[in-house]
Amino acid sequence: MTANTLRRRLTASTAPLALSAGSAFAEVELDFWDQVWGGPEYIATASALVEAFNAAHPDIHVTYRSVPWASWYETYVTAIASGSAPDISTGAGFQAVQFYDFGEILPIGDVASAIGAETFAVGTLEAVTYDEQIVALPWTLDTRAIFYRTDLLEAAGITPPTTWEEFRAATKALTGNGVYGLVSSGDTTGSHWVSSITINNGGGLFDAECKAALTSEASPEALHFLADLVADGSVNPASAGYSNDDAIGSFVRGAAAFILNSPNLADLAGEAGAHIAVLPPLTSPHGTKGTVYWVNNIMVYRQTEHPEETMTFLKWWSDNQLPLWTEGNGAGLPARMAYQQDAYFTEREQVSDVIAEYLPVAKPMSAVAGGTFPAMNVVDGDGFLRTLIQTIWQGGDVDAAIADAQAHLEDVLAD
User: Fold this and answer.
1) Rounded-to-integer distance, Cα 342 and Cα 359, Å
2) Long-range contacts made by residues 77-86, C-beta under 8 angstroms, separation at least 24?
3) For residue range 1-32, what is the model confidence (pLDDT) as tens digits?
4) Do the Cβ atoms of 176 and 244 come closer than 8 Å?
5) Which of 6, 73, 138, 348 can bridge 124 by disulfide, Cβ–Cβ 3.0-4.6 Å?
6) Chain segment 101-149, per-residue pLDDT in tens
7) Quick check: 324 and 330 in contact, CB under 8 A?
């Protein structure tokens, strides 16, 4: 089903918005659908927060539903098309803008203004802005950073690299005796190298006019840099077939010196976490730094019969969500800067380093275009970037792979 077909179906089948401010004499019922952002402790914490809201707002009752990531897109599309969308939900980084384009999401600029733009990490509100409207509220940031094994570098007498040239030399020097300079995967996490390294080089998937730009000067240069690491023999040749868990396992065992991954990587490493550090963002040959991040968000659905009460809950949730991390061990980093200064983050050295060094240079997948646009949800969920990174890790024809990816991206944007 194409995006245009889906848009027509949703427009035809969705009932018009019925505005209601609620009543002091009747309890307003709201449905909140929350993606699974952590283990059982996350769901328990989120449920408890909803109950706290309900207790503080006797005229509003919110029902909490935990939504698994499996088939999440179909879950929401089906609900919207049948007229049974939730009042509010959390979701993936580009979910809100695509549904907004279908006419199914309410802008939340007033809530963002009430909270204060300065409250959010720099660039995050821009990352959820489309057609001059803030279409969702940022709440968690999924950032990619390069980590390294301090024990391997120290044993080899290698100083942590700061530039691409130094990184290539380090990965080559650290390869041997069953250890590789770099390990990655051929799944979605492995494909994040494409966005990360092209943004690092001042490029990305798009140009300033939101057109496909994988064949622009900066992006191919960055992808050829990855291919050079493969040609040097510095990348574990199993990477193309590895899952993210496989790659993390190899890194944690000390069979690789570098890996691109999420901020909480060291937390997953057990005792090996003591030997894992964050490599400061590399400087590209053009003097640029950067990485990719996803601004996951909370959105309000146009089908709600109670927009005022839903906005009240949205603001309350943002103002009170810190326990989702401190008690619920939620994934990602908070979009609100004050939360990032909580001891839960500052006392974990690697996470604190990612916040201090990577967040200031991180950009969404929409770079260089900036902001967000509807096709991003399709691009983010499409498998063509996995195919591209698998070809690179396998030592295939990089130029042909880039051309294929560019053509596919152009088709997605034209749909």
Assistant:
1) 16
2) 77/6, 77/10, 80/10, 80/14, 80/104, 80/301, 80/303, 81/9, 81/10, 81/13, 81/14, 82/13, 83/13, 83/14, 83/15, 83/303, 84/303, 85/301, 85/303, 85/304, 86/31, 86/32, 86/33, 86/301
3) 334 433 433 343 333 333 334 444 458 999 99
4) no
5) 138
6) 999 999 999 999 999 999 999 999 999 999 999 999 999 999 999 999 9
7) yes
